[in-house]
Amino acid sequence: MNVNKFLSEIGKSGIAYQNRYDILFGATRNGKQLFDRGMIEKMNTRLESVALPASGIASSPVKLQGIDREMPYGRIYEGDITLVFLEDSNFTIRKAFEAWQNKVIDETTYLCGFYDEYTCERLDITMSNLKSKEVYKVRVFDLFPKTVNAVQLTAAGEELIKTEVAISYRRWTSDPEEGSSESEEQIADSGPNNPPRPPRIVGFAG
Length: 206
Known about the structure:
Largest sheet: 7 strands, antiparallel
Order of helices and strands: HEHEEEEHHEEEEH
Shape: globular
Number of helices: 5
Structural class: alpha+beta
Strand content: 25-35%
Helix content: 10-25%
Oligomer: single chain
Number of strands: 9
Distance between the termini: 66 Å
């Protein structure tokens, strides 16, 4: 490696830092806000970590002239998005995500809610540079909180409590508005991959 070229490239293009991020949850698919501005600000202030989602290309081997060749046939969006928050003294963030989970499956009746009523239309994860200028954005579609972590309590320590939430999602795209003059509604998830509303499902109590 040429050290001078390396230093020149770093000085010219800079470095991306892990701690320059913000998140913004959108409304549900039927247009109702899940979190108000105060809660969004609290989440961003207390968000300790979040992972940019992964994606892959699904492929299968096809034999051509006796030699296998991997041929792509689709996109793969695997895993969940994990958010880790430093909890406040009233467990406000944990309560907010538990209330959202209750929209998915009612904790008393065990009825599943309507898809459009509990599914968040989008989550934006925005990366910024040292001048607080947006440089990269990931927009994640069709989310709901699958898991709110267990918290180990002990009389022996004074460790800070953290709330960890695993968010299930359907797909994501990067820099959704870059080079586009479409309206906000057109940028939102739409088209043949946008599924119809699933029916309400009755669970089993007891």
